[in-house]
Amino acid sequence: MYTNITHYKVTESDEVWMEDLLEKYHRKIFRYCYHILRDIHDAEDATQEVFMKAFKSSSKTKITNSNAWLYKIAYNHCLNKLKRKSIVTFLPFNEGYKIAEESIDNINFELNFIISKLKPKERTLIVLRIIEDKDYADIASILGISQQTARKRFERVKEKIQKIIERRNNDGQ
User: Quick count: other Cβ atoms within 10 Å of Cβ 13?
Assistant: First the structure.
């Protein structure tokens, strides 16, 4: 297997910046990747790859909002990773791997079920808006769309979620 290893010169200020970025955002980006990819191992890999892309980026000197910038990298990376998979299966959060409570905040099982029924782009909106508590300006910046479009798409996903809940309640009775 061919591995492309590239050596980068890292200045002391870059090293401090990188450590600061990792300390502030590693857990958030991991949680975000986990909710989109729905697999702990894929999320771990994706998180590392997101930070590597960020560290290698030539545009890091032009960044005004590092939070939105990292989420945008994570969003694009996760969607590309999902596209590369030939078969996408959505496993419920509580099956498969056991995840330590401190690694991912306690998330309501009902929300997990709902998220599993959404498409990746819809899931992204829900994760950013509800779980990560991002405003529409940040979401628009991350997804590369206008605030109005972000708001409208979120409203559509909310309607879809309401239908999922209604169906589940009707099936359970």
Answer: 8
In the 8-state DSSP scheme, what is residue 173? -
133: left (phi over 0), alpha (psi -120 to 50) or beta: left
pLDDT digits (tens), the chain, 173 positions: 444 444 444 455 667 878 888 899 999 999 999 988 888 999 999 999 999 988 887 666 677 788 888 999 999 999 888 877 643 344 344 444 444 444 444 445 666 777 788 888 898 898 898 878 899 999 999 999 999 999 999 999 989 988 888 888 887 65
Whose CA is closest to 36, among 129, 124, 161?
A: 124
- First-residue to last-residue Cα distance in the chain: 54
> For residue 105, which of 132, 78, 81, 82 has the smallest C-alpha distance?
132
Neighbours of 102 (CB within 10 A): 7
* Complete DSSP assignment for 37-93: H--HHHHHHHHHHHHHHHHH-GGGGG-S-HHHHHHHHHHHHHHHHHHH-SS-----T
- Does this model's pTM top 0.85? no
30 neighbors 43 (Cβ within 8 angstroms): yes
